[in-house]
Design goal:
Chain B: Keywords: DNA-binding, Phosphoprotein, Transcription, Transcription regulation, Two-component regulatory system. The complex is a heterodimer. Chain A is of the alpha+beta class. Chain B has five helices and five strands, in the order βαβαβαβαβα. Chain B has a five-stranded parallel β-sheet, with helices on both faces. In chain B, strand 3, helix 3 and strand 4 form a beta-alpha-beta unit. The longest helix of chain B is centred in the first third of the chain and has 13 residues. Chain B starts with a strand and ends with a helix. In chain B, 36% of the residues are buried. The chains are: A alpha+beta, B alpha/beta.
């Protein structure tokens, strides 16, 4: 029963018991001696007995204490130190266990062996993890640049992985969203049925969300499916029909031409004219097919401009082009210009929604066309020695020519802009979503869009949005999916508003209007819980615009002002700056009061608030909403739209958000 | 009635243009090469130049570039023609200063409407 006590305490108790026993025996011996003397009629000498008892007693105490002290110091303490060392893997000091015979060296050897094996194991794990990380990075690169769209769904058909090509083919694609939202479900269901019939993989042809034709292959995974998709538009249509039409018109026309020797009856003249027109039309059709979008490559301007002066100043835009040959054409022209004494810089001309103009500019006279055509007849790309610059440009559906006008002499090359964002993430995935099971309302499991708006002013009913940004969270993590756009408010932005968010009228000129921007954002935020800091303001703007735009936001809503109040109480300051400071979130000054900067800070705050809320027993959305009702005096719950009669002015910006 | 200079190396197209322009009552002259074209334009000041792109010596693009670079030839209207019927060729021709651009094969109605637009329009 004493085994549960510390070793040193037990030893102390043993020595204490020994001392007590000795003192007891000594006392008993003295009592017996005194009684023996009395019964023999001998006088009892009390003083010597007491003295003997005292000597014996002190002697016993001193001896036992000394032995205990030595035992404790040289045995008990080193044993405890050895045990602790063995538990933590630390080798004991050489001097610490010198009275424990071989136990000290043995335990030291054991600890050192254990440390060596732990180090070896850790090193092996590190190497293995590094190998895995390298393999993962390589696989990610392959999947990111494979050209085809790749996406994985879980057993419920919800997206858990996609690459940039898939995002381009299926605009609005997002994690944790049903794939059937983006691909007409009929073909998906039919392909899934074929997989269930026992095949491992099956081809499918389907329609994308925007009606485009896609071809693909679906493969069964352990829990879900892998889908590889290609845009059929990239496959050049067979010019068969146009060729047959050409042949038909030529076949009809040629024998009729023999009749031209004599007078031509009106009917024959009409037939010749008709056939000639048919021939021209068939030729035009054939030209269109042959000059169609043969280029499937996509390159950043920086790739096309590599090695050319001015490349560093180009913006991050992508165009439909093969980087290698087009870079070779530009460098070739640059070199030829240099050979004729013109030092050219590469610059970006006008950027239009579907086209950009690259310019080679120099101070000096323009280059003569015949000289330019001669340069373009040369093969600039060592990788394709038989292909002239003219052929490379034609394959890209473009050309390069001198542009007249004021300023420096220049050559201009228009290029088609690649659809989709230039900075599209290579891969977006969270395979843990697949193991989450049925839809959960736990805060840590929610799919959310955290968003923020910048506006022309602080009135929900009077002012308009000039910028909106959002980012998605799934299962307690940022997915990397972002939405950001300037919005043309259709009215001048007051200088007081520009002073805060630095968005000017010039910046929003040409930006999407409210209708286009809010429909796009609604698509991005569909099915997600919307989160904002001071949500009544931002939700109020979205709801106030619904009548004009037709974009209705009936999402569930969380407000980080309210979540903050649940954790720190209503009396604390709940501005985004104060909340960020409490949670250790840093916002760069230049990002503050930008929609994306504030949305990022709000998202970080939400993610860090989740554990604090869970510690207070608020783990589910419903519990957060119920708790929010207790803070109505602070701010309204944005899940409850204001009464129409009160809507004007309700939710107007106040000092709470500081935004 | 207009004074038209046709610069076209293909004889059959030149014959067809000769027939059509004569029938429509235009005076016209033809050059089969690009060499000396700019000098001829400067000399005769035609109301319209029908200029083919692909000529055996000097390209039509070089000729339009030279015409537009010469201040003495301001206001000369040039309609370019090419069998390279792509949008890029059209953009290139217009960027170099052509007033119109038609792709071969063109229909008579298309040629007539382009010519009418250039001949009846304000001076370039």
């Amino acid at each position: 029963m004493l085994t549960g006590l510390p070793l040193r305490l037990r030893i102390l108790m043993i020595f204490a018991a020994l001392l007590a026993g000795l003192l007891g025996l000594a006392g008993l011996a003295l009592v017996l001696l005194a009684r023996g003397s009395a019964s023999a009629g001998l006088p009892v000498a009390a003083d010597p007995l007491v003295q003997a008892a005292a000597v014996l007693g002190f002697g016993a105490v001193a001896a036992v204490t000394l032995v205990w002290f030595l035992f404790d110091r040289h045995m008990a303490r080193p044993i405890e130190a050895l045990a602790g060392g063995l538990r933590t893997g630390r080798a004991p000091d050489r001097d610490a266990a010198r009275y424990l015979a071989d136990l000290g060296p043995a335990s030291r050897a054991a600890a050192e062996a254990r440390a060596r094996s732990a180090e070896a194991l850790a090193e092996a794990v590190r190497d293995h993890a590094a190998d895995l990380a390298r393999e993962k990075a390589t696989m990610e690169s392959i999947l990111a640049d494979i050209g085809a769209g790749a996406l994985v769904t879980d057993a419920q058909g919800r997206v858990v992985f996609y690459n940039a090509s898939a995002a381009r083919l299926l605009p609005g694609l997002a994690l944790d969203r049903p794939l059937s939202r983006h691909i007409a479900p009929g073909a998906l269901e039919a392909a899934a049925a074929r997989l269930q019939a026992g095949v491992e993989a099956t081809d499918l042809v389907c329609l994308g969300g925007e009606g485009q034709r896609l071809t693909g292959r679906m493969r069964r995974l352990d829990a879900g499916t892998l889908l590889i998709l290609r845009d059929r538009a990239l496959e050049r249509p067979a010019p068969r029909d146009a060729l047959e039409s050409l042949r038909r018109h030529a076949a009809t026309l040629v024998p009729m031409l023999d009749a031209l020797d004599g007078p031509i009856p009106p009917a024959l003249a009409r037939a010749i004219r008709d056939e000639g027109q048919g021939l021209a039309a068939a030729l035009r059709r054939l030209s269109e097919i042959m000059s169609g979008d043969a280029i499937s490559g996509r390159a950043a301007l920086a790739e096309l401009a590599a090695g050319l002066p001015g490349a560093a100043d180009l913006p991050a835009l992508s165009v439909l082009a093969e980087a290698g040959p087009m870079n070779a054409v530009l460098r070739h022209l640059h070199d030829r210009l240099a050979g004729s004494g013109a030092v050219a810089l590469l610059r970006l001309g006008p950027v239009e929604p579907d086209e950009v103009h690259l310019r080679l500019e120099w101070a000096g006279p323009p280059v003569p066309m015949d000289l330019l055509e001669g340069w373009l007849a040369e093969a600039p790309d060592s990788g394709q020695p038989g292909q002239s610059a003219t052929e490379i440009l034609a394959a890209h559906g473009t050309g390069i020519w001198p542009e007249a006008g004021d300023g420096p002499a220049r050559l201009v090359m228009p290029l088609r802009r690649a659809a989709g964002p230039a900075d599209a993430a290579g891969l977006t995935f969270d395979f843990a979503l697949a193991s989450r099971g049925a839809a959960s309302s736990r805060l840590a499991d929610l799919t959310c869009v955290v968003f923020d708006t910048e506006t022309t002013g602080l009135s929900v009913s009077q002012d308009r949005i000039v910028q909106i940004a959002g980012l998605r969270i799934a299962r307690g993590r940022l997915t990397g999916e972002r939405f950001e756009t300037l919005v043309d408010p259709g009215r001048p932005i007051p200088p007081a508003a520009t002073a805060i968010h630095h968005i000017t009228d010039a910046m929003v000129a040409g930006a999407p209007d409210m209708t286009a921007a809010l429909h796009a954002f609604r698509h991005f935020a569909e099915d997600a819980v919307l989160i904002a800091h001071n949500a009544p303001f931002d939700m109020g703007l979205l709801r106030a615009a619904a009548a004009e735009t037709g974009a209705h936001f009936d999402n569930r809503v969380l407000d980080t002002v309210l979540l903050s109040a649940m954790v720190w109480g209503q009396s604390a300051v709940h501005t985004l700056d104060a909340l960020s400071a409490r949670l250790g979130i840093e916002i760069a000054p230049e990002d503050r009061h930008t929609a994306m900067g504030d949305a990022i800070a709000t998202a970080e705050a939400f993610l860090r608030l989740i554990p604090a809320l869970e510690a207070k027993g608020i783990t589910r959305f419903e519990e957060a909403v119920a708790e929010a009702r207790r803070h109505r005096r602070l701010i309204a719950d944005a899940n409850e739209p204001p009464h129409p009669a009160l809507a004007a002015g309700a939710g107007d910006h106040n000092s709470i958000s500081g935004a | 009635m207009a004074e038209i200079l046709v610069i076209e190396d293909e004889d059959n197209i030149a014959v067809a243009l000769d027939f059509l322009l004569t029938r429509d009552g235009h005076r016209h002259d033809r050059m089969a090469t690009g060499a000396g074209a700019v000098a001829r334009i400067r000399e005769t000041r035609p109301d319209l130049v029908l200029l083919d792109v692909m000529l055996p010596d000097v390209s039509g693009y070089q000729i339009i570039q030279d015409v537009r670079a010469d201040p003495a030839l301001d206001g000369v209207r040039v309609l370019m023609m090419t069998a390279r019927g792509s949008v890029v060729e059209r953009r290139k021709g217009l960027a170099l200063g052509a007033d119109g651009f038609i792709a071969k094969p063109f229909e008579l109605s298309e040629l007539r409407s382009e010519m009418a637009r250039l001949l009846d329009g304000p001076p370039c």
